[in-house]
Amino acid sequence: MFRNPLSVGVDIGNHSIKTVVLQQKKEQFELAAFVEVELTKSVINDQHSVNNAELLSAMRQIKKQLPWQAKAVTLALPDSAVISKVVQLGTSLSEEEAEFAIVQALGAASPFPVEELWFDYFPLNSDRFSDAVATTPFQVFASRRETIDNRVNTLIKLGFKPKIMELQTHALLWLAEHLAEMGSHYNQWGVVDVGKRHTEFCMKPQGSAAYHREIRFGTSMLDAQDGISAVAGNNAEQFTKQLAEQLKRQIQLYNSTHPRSGIKGLWLCGGGQDVVSVSLLQRLIGLDVVWVNPFQHFSCANKVELPQSMSSQYAVATGLALRGLL
């Protein structure tokens, strides 16, 4: 029996699968392994389901590079694959009545039949069973069973034990919280994940639910594809200027709705290390900007060598591994 079990975070992307394995050692976390496998073709379709054969093949390669006892897995779904809804429920309802009311609310909000969904819910305050309030808000998350099951079942075939399914935004915010704990001046920082097709902008305001926006802008802007004007060559300046315009709109929108929890800086992560100029982005948006180094505050197990280049593409997987330890 292992007193300190390993936590495996698996980030299934469109173009690669990234895995991070963490273990708690006394008062700190230890990096036990990290692996990225490039995909020859996209493993996720437009409905967020995965190609089981492609996923199985990639995860089989990854498993060979992980510690043999790394079994407990935390996975993530894109936020766009999840229905998020806040439902007001009477505090006098029994658990069965509360679940029935949530099912009814999902039926009205979901484009899919409720029987095709997996869902989870929890109260957003501590007054759920208080006689002093008549209702309490519940956060409800739901996603198609097929979307979840084909990920989970594929990993089970390889001997993994999927334990948690998180939102991708929440994985990034788990990492941001960890980084803030390691350095107090990083409190109230947002996270920007620059992807191939989309850029994710997320923030955890004090005392509020997570804030997230998906921006239809990514590094594919550098390619002459999909009818989008390509940025000539690897012109980091032009790409950074376009990214700054996108982010300024999102920051303005966020600040207008959360005036008491203003953004003090931004973590950058994802695969855009070669096409984003941090110094230029800082000047254009007027905030501190830092590329995430998700492994910065971990000790390393024997035989684990940190990457020579930046490792910000492991941000989601690292956040998931952290989530599995908590």
From TrEMBL:
It holds the Pfam family PilM_2. InterPro entries: ATPase_NBD, FtsA/MreB, PilM. This is Competence protein A. It comes from Photobacterium aquimaris. The lineage of its organism: Bacteria, Pseudomonadati, Pseudomonadota, Gammaproteobacteria, Vibrionales.
